[in-house]
Q: What sequence folds into this?
C-alpha cells in the first residue's frame, strides 16, 4: 500500500489543511460580516484584496509570505517574539500558506450566504427584543451555515493541492512540510519515482473527490435542517 | 393605556406628517397603498428614525427627537406583525413563538404561552417548521410570536394583505378574538375597509403622507366627510348592538341605539354584544312608513346631512343616537325633495353581522 | 458589435500565430545557477543579431523532466552530468554537440548579518554548533544538482548523517540562496557564483574540490534545435560569452 513516508505525507497534508481551514474560518467570517454591513469608499478594493490569493501565482504568494512571516519579516518577527510562533521550515508555515491561499473560497462562500439572507428577518428579530449580537448568533449564523460549511470543505479540498506557495515559503522537508503535492513533485523529480508519484496522485484525486462530494452533501443536509 | 404619535419625515418625493392618539382597543391606520401607513408603523417600532418626532406609549417616551431620545427597536417592547409573517425558517413554530418571550424584560407566566397557543389554534403545529405551514398558519404564528413578547403595543402591518380570501376569513376571527381577549392595544395598518370596519374601535385615515381624518369607527364610517377625506366611497354604518331576544320565527332581534334590528338567527345567548354593519347601498328611503314589504327592518330616522355627487347622493340619517348612511340616486333625491331635518323611514335590506358570531 | 468581436479575434489569432512563427526565436532551458550569466549573454546576442532568446531557468532536474515531456527547448544547459546523461539516454539531445565549457565551486554561506567568520571546511567542522538549532538551506539533495553535490560533499566529510534531519531542501539552488538572504536559515550551501550575486550573504567557507565530483555544466543542443539555435549555441562558448561567465565567477574548463 503506502510506505511510511507516503503515509506521513498524507497525514501531514490532512493536518496542515485542517488547521489551515479552521484558523482561516473566523477571519473569513469576520471579513464577510464586516463587508456585508460596511459602506465606505474603497470597499470594492478591499473585497478584491480578499480574493487576490486566488489570482496571484502561488510562488509569488510564497515569496511574499517569506518576506512578511519569515523570522525577519515584520509579522513573523512580532509573532515569534510575542507568541513564540515560528513559520519558517515548519508545518505551521505550510498551514499559513494554505490558509491564505484558500481564504477567498471561504470568504466568498460566506459572503454569498450572508447576502442571500433576508433582511426582513433581522428586522423581525429586532422588534422581538434581539440586539445585534443576539441576531448574529441566533439568526445570521444558523442561516449562513450551509454556505459556511460548503466554503470550508471546498477550501479544505483546495488546500490539499497547494504546492507553489508551500515549497517556496517553507521548503520541502519530509515529515514537516512535505505534503502530498510536494511529495508527488519530489517523486517526479527523482528518476524511478514514477510509481510512487502515481500512487500519491491517485490518493490526491481520491481525497479531492471525497472533499467535493462531502461539501455538496453537507450543504444539502444543512439546508434541509434550517427548513429552506 | 394611551399613546401619542407625532412625526415628520421626508422621503424622496414624499413628505410624511402624522399626528394622532391611540387609546385602548384597536386603532386602525387606514388608507390606500403608498399613503405612508407602513412608514408610520416602522417609525413607531423603531425601524425608521423620523427627522422629527415624538412618540409616547403608556407614559414611556420612546422617541423625542427634540430631546435626543430614541430607544432602539429591540427595547421598545412593541410587537410587530409583518405582512409577510417573517417566521425564522430554521426554528420550529414553538421556538419561533418563544423567541420574543425569551427576550422579554418581564416575561409572562408559563400559562400565558399555552393560553396564546390555544387562542390562536397553534397546538398541533408546535413542532413543525415554517416551511411546512400554510399561509394562514404562518400568519397566526406571527401573531402569536408578537403577542408572546408581552408587548405594550401590538403593531399589525397589513397582516392579511398577502392572503387569499379563504385565508383571510380564516384569520379574521382570531384577530377579533385577540381584540376581545388579549388586552393589548393594537395599531392595525390596512388598506382594506372591510377589515377596518370589522376590527377597529378607532380609525385614523391617511392620504399622501398626511392624516386626512380620524375618529371612532362608529362615527367615522357614517360620516359623509370621511368618504371625501379617505378617498373611498362611504361604506356605511358600523353599529354596536346586543342580542335582545331570539324570536320564534327563526330570527333574532338586536337592540342598537336607533331601535331594533331583525336579523337571521344568531347562535349566541341574549345579551351578547355584537358589531353590526349596514352598507349605504342597502338602505332605501321612504317618506311614508311602508306596509306589506318584505324588509324586516324599517327604522324611523331624521336626515342629518346630505352629500351629492354626479353619480349618487349619500344621505346621513340620525336614528336615535346612531348614525346611518343611505345611498340613493340624485334623481331620487330630487324627486323626494329630501333636505336635512326631514323625518322619514330607512328601509334596511341587509344587515351584516360579523361572521364569527353568525349562527351555525 | 459582432464586427468588433470578429476583428478582435482575428487580431488575437494573428498575434499568436505571429509569435509562434517569430523568425529567429531561440528557446533555452538552463540551470538556475546560470540565471544572471545567461541573461547577460542573451541580451548581448540580441543586441548584436536581433534574434530573440527565450530563457527558462529552473532546477536541472525539473528542466530535464520538462524536455522529456515535450517542452520546446532547443538548448539545454544542465548543472551536472547526471541530468544531461538523463536527457541523453532518452534521446532528447544531440550528443555530438555536448560540451562542458564552465565549472563552479561549492561554497558555504551565511547571512551577511551572521557573526560567523570564514573557516576551513574539513572533517573537524562542528556543523551542529554552527547551525545553532537552525536548518541548513540547500537545493533538494534528492534531485537538485547543487543539493546532490552538497550531499556528496557532506557525506565525504562524515557530516551527512548528523545533518540529514536539519535541512531545508529547496526547489532549486536560488531558492536556497533566498533562505539565507532572508536570514531564515543560518547557513546554506550554494554555488560560488550564486553567493557572489547576493549582497545579503557572505561566504564562510569553500568546499575543497576533493570532497565532491567536479561541478561542471554540460551544454547541449536538443533534437529540435533550429539553425538559429545552433548559431546561438556557438555564441555561448565564444570569447564574449566566456568573459561573462568569468565575470560571474564560473571557471573555464
A:
Amino acid at each position: 500500500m503506502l510506505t511510511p513516508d507516503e503515509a506521513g505525507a498524507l497525514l501531514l497534508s490532512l493536518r496542515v489543511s485542517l488547521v489551515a481551514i479552521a484558523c482561516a474560518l473566523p477571519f473569513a467570517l469576520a471579513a464577510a460580516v464586516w463587508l456585508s454591513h460596511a459602506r465606505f469608499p474603497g470597499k470594492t478594493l478591499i473585497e478584491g484584496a480578499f480574493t487576490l490569493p486566488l489570482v496571484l501565482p502561488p510562488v509569488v504568494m510564497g515569496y511574499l509570505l517569506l518576506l512578511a512571516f519569515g523570522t525577519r519579516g515584520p509579522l513573523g518577527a512580532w509573532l515569534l517574539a510575542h507568541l513564540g510562533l515560528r513559520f519558517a521550515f515548519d508545518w505551521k508555515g505550510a498551514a499559513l500558506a494554505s490558509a491564505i491561499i484558500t481564504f477567498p473560497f471561504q470568504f466568498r462562500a460566506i459572503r454569498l450566504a450572508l447576502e442571500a439572507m433576508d433582511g426582513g428577518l433581522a428586522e423581525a428579530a429586532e422588534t422581538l427584543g434581539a440586539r445585534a449580537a443576539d441576531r448574529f448568533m441566533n439568526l445570521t449564523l444558523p442561516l449562513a451555515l450551509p454556505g459556511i460549511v460548503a466554503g470550508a470543505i471546498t477550501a479544505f479540498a483546495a488546500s490539499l493541492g497547494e504546492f507553489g506557495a508551500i515549497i517556496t515559503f517553507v521548503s520541502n522537508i519530509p515529515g514537516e512540510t512535505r505534503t502530498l503535492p510536494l511529495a508527488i513533485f519530489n517523486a517526479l523529480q527523482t528518476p524511478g519515482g514514477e510509481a510512487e508519484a502515481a500512487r500519491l496522485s491517485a490518493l490526491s484525486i481520491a481525497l479531492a473527490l471525497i472533499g467535493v462530494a462531502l461539501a455538496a452533501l453537507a450543504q444539502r443536509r444543512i439546508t434541509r435542517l434550517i427548513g429552506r | 393605556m394611551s399613546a401619542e404619535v407625532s412625526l415628520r419625515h421626508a422621503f424622496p418625493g414624499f413628505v410624511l406628517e402624522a399626528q394622532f392618539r391611540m387609546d385602548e382597543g384597536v386603532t386602525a391606520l387606514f388608507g390606500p397603498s403608498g399613503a405612508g401607513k407602513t412608514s408610520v408603523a416602522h417609525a413607531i417600532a423603531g425601524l425608521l428614525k423620523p427627522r422629527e418626532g415624538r412618540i409616547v406609549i403608556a407614559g414611556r417616551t420612546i422617541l423625542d427627537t427634540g430631546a435626543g431620545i430614541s430607544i432602539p427597536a429591540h427595547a421598545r417592547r412593541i410587537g410587530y406583525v409583518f405582512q409577510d409573517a417573517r417566521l425564522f425558517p430554521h426554528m420550529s413554530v414553538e421556538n419561533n413563538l418563544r423567541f420574543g418571550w425569551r427576550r422579554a424584560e418581564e416575561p409572562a407566566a408559563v400559562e400565558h404561552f399555552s393560553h396564546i397557543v390555544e387562542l390562536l389554534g397553534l397546538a398541533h403545529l408546535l413542532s413543525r417548521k415554517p416551511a411546512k405551514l400554510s399561509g394562514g398558519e404562518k400568519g397566526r404564528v406571527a401573531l402569536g410570536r408578537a403577542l408572546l413578547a408581552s408587548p405594550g403595543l401590538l403593531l399589525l402591518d397589513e397582516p392579511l394583505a398577502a392572503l387569499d380570501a379563504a385565508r383571510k376569513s380564516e384569520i379574521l376571527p382570531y384577530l377579533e378574538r385577540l381584540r376581545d381577549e388579549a388586552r393589548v392595544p393594537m395599531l392595525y395598518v390596512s388598506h382594506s375597509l372591510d377589515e377596518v370596519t370589522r376590527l377597529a374601535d378607532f380609525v385614523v385615515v391617511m392620504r399622501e403622507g398626511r392624516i386626512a381624518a380620524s375618529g371612532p369607527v362608529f362615527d367615522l364610517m357614517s360620516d359623509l366627510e370621511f368618504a371625501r377625506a379617505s378617498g373611498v366611497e362611504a361604506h356605511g354604518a358600523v353599529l354596536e348592538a346586543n342580542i335582545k331576544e331570539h324570536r320564534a320565527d327563526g330570527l333574532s332581534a338586536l337592540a342598537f341605539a336607533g331601535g331594533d334590528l331583525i336579523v337571521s338567527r344568531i347562535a349566541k345567548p341574549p345579551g351578547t354584544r355584537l358589531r353590526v354593519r349596514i352598507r349605504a347601498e342597502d338602505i332605501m328611503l321612504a317618506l311614508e312608513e311602508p306596509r306589506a314589504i318584505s324588509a324586516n327592518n324599517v327604522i324611523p330616522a331624521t336626515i342629518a346631512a346630505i352629500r351629492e355627487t354626479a353619480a349618487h347622493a349619500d344621505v346621513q340619517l340620525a336614528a336615535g343616537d346612531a348614525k346611518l348612511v343611505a345611498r340613493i340616486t340624485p334623481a331620487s333625491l330630487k324627486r323626494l325633495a329630501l333636505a336635512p331635518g326631514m323625518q322619514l323611514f330607512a328601509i334596511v335590506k341587509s344587515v351584516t353581522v360579523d361572521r364569527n358570531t353568525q349562527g351555525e | 458589435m459582432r464586427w468588433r468581436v470578429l476583428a478582435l479575434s482575428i487580431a488575437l489569432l494573428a498575434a499568436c500565430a505571429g509569435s509562434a512563427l517569430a523568425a529567429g526565436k531561440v528557446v533555452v532551458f538552463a540551470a538556475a545557477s546560470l540565471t544572471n550569466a545567461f541573461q547577460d549573454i542573451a541580451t548581448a546576442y540580441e543586441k548584436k543579431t536581433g534574434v530573440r532568446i527565450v530563457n527558462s531557468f529552473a532546477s536541472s532536474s525539473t528542466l530535464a523532466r520538462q524536455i522529456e515531456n515535450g517542452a520546446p527547448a532547443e538548448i539545454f544547459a544542465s548543472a551536472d552530468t547526471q541530468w544531461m546523461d538523463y536527457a541523453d539516454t532518452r534521446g532528447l539531445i544531440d550528443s555530438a554537440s555536448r560540451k562542458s565549457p564552465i565549472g563552479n565551486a561549492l561554497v558555504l554561506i551565511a547571512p551577511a548579518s551572521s557573526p560567523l567568520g570564514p573557516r576551513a571546511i574539513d572533517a573537524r567542522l562542528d556543523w551542529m554548533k554552527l547551525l545553532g538549532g537552525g536548518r541548513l538551506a540547500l537545493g533538494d539533495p534528492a534531485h537538485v544538482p547543487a543539493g546532490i553535490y552538497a550531499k556528496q560533499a557532506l557525506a565525504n566529510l562524515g557530516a551527512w548523517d548528523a545533518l540529514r534531519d536539519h535541512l531545508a531542501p529547496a526547489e532549486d539552488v536560488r531558492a536556497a540562496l533566498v533562505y539565507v538572504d532572508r536570514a531564515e536559515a543560518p547557513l546554506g550551501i550554494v554555488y560560488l557564483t550564486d553567493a557572489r550575486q547576493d549582497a545579503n550573504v557572505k561566504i564562510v567557507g569553500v568546499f575543497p574540490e576533493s570532497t565532491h565530483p567536479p561541478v561542471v555544466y554540460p551544454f547541449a543542443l536538443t533534437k529540435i534545435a533550429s539553425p538559429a539555435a545552433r548559431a546561438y549555441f556557438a555564441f555561448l562558448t565564444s570569447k564574449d560569452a566566456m568573459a561573462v561567465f568569468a565575470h560571474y565567477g564560473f571557471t573555464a574548463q
User: Anything to note?
Assistant: Chain C has two domains: 23-103+217-252, 106-206. Chain C touches chain A through 22 residues (CB under 8 Å).
